[in-house]
Amino acid sequence: MRDVMRDMARDNAPARRWLSIVGIGEDGLDGLSARGRELIEGADVVFGGARHLALAGEAIHGAARAWPSPFEDGVKQVLALAGGDVCVLASGDPFLYGVGTVLARHVPADEMEVVPAPSAFSLAAARLGWALNDTTLLSAHGRAVEGTRRHLHDGRLLVLTSDADGPAALAALLVAAGFGPSLMHVLEALGGARERVRRATAEGFALGDIHPLNLVGIEVVAGENARAIPLTPGLPDDWYENDGQLTKRTIRAATLAALAPRRGELLWDIGAGAGSIGIEWMLADPSLSAIAIEERGERAARVKRNALALGVPGLRVVEGRAPEALEGLPAPDAVFVGGGASDSGVLDTALEALKAGGRIVVNAVTLETEAVLLARHAVLGGELTRLSVAQAAPVAGMTGWRPAMPVTQWSWRKP
To answer: What is the tens place of the pLDDT at every residue in 118-138?
Structure first.
């Protein structure tokens, strides 16, 4: 009995907080709380970028280790020291696009002590007088700047960039998308002695000598020919570069509704064509991801260009023929088959890979593929829907209905 009680006490004992994560700003030691400085001074090893280590300066009494490249190597080094006294320095708030979000995937919260500093976003909002709750916060640090494209609606954005070239790249993106009149606030080295705030419109952007540590506030203004990406699926067909292999707008909106994306899910878009389904799946929420599988090389390249132009540079494109190209891919939460459904093994492979509770949607325009869907429906159930669309068009000086090729859609949810 005594041994059982001892084991229970050990299991219920509070975890030792061996890892500290301390946010530090451009004001260095002057901006640290007493507790933040204490954690740095008491650490056996202090990790940080070269800038962070220089800012902490005399407070580091243990070994100073510059964060290595690639980034993952630094995480491994920190974890290898578990049980010691380890401190990681971070920029501002470690849990807002910071190192804390990565370390928390590996270290339980009760083994960490986190002392945040004001984030660059908070400092920028304070300088501009913007309400953070009404501002879209984005990071283009280490990410493609094109990811900002999807957020270009009337409103305000704060965008953290990677380097001194970031503001000019954002200006070019705004102009190309038709938002040239937008006002850009370039905030440099916030919180430090070299802090500076300058302004220019995107179309008139000519600022030079920009500090590499910068954040850009954008007051989005649409120009005459701006294309703001809507919040609902069904982008205009002519927004996609295509060779005719494109799920048309109305059918696309119905297809996305049947796929029913949920936060954090992964889609396989098999026979991607122009990539419209995978792209609009990802546009539904920044947490969503997609893999476009396309056999033809020129179409695969076109999918990448469309994804970049429409603000989802993270769309993964796999060039190859299904089902062979599906081998080794992460299991999907949803599958769309826009081409190749009648090919041997495609549906069987997709259905087997699909996670429990996942959805599959298949569109057919040929009688041969429709027969395949009728057979699947007879065995598995699900929903069969006939989608027919007609648009008004000129007919002999008057107007009549011009029907598009009907689509048979089969959708099914895996138990």
So the answer is: 999 999 999 999 999 999 999
Q: Provide the 10 A C-beta neighbour count for residue 90.
A: 26
Taking all residues of the chain, what is their mean pLDDT, rounded to a whole number? Answer: 94
Give pLDDT tens digits for 270-306. 999 999 999 999 999 999 999 999 999 999 999 999 9
Alpha-carbon torsion 67, 69, 75, 76, what sign?
negative
Q: What is the pTM of this model?
A: 0.91
- Structural domains present in the chain: 2-117 (3.40.1010.10), 121-220 (3.30.950.10), 237-413 (3.40.50.150)
Distance CA 193, CA 204 (A): 28
- Bridge-based pairing of strands 86-91 and 19-24 is parallel
Q: Name which of 287, 269, 294 is nearest 279 in CA terms.
A: 269
Distances (CA, A) of 224 to 9, 184, 201, 221: 69, 18, 15, 10
Encoding tokens for residue 293?
């599988």
From CA 154, how far away is CA 183, in angstroms rounded? 12
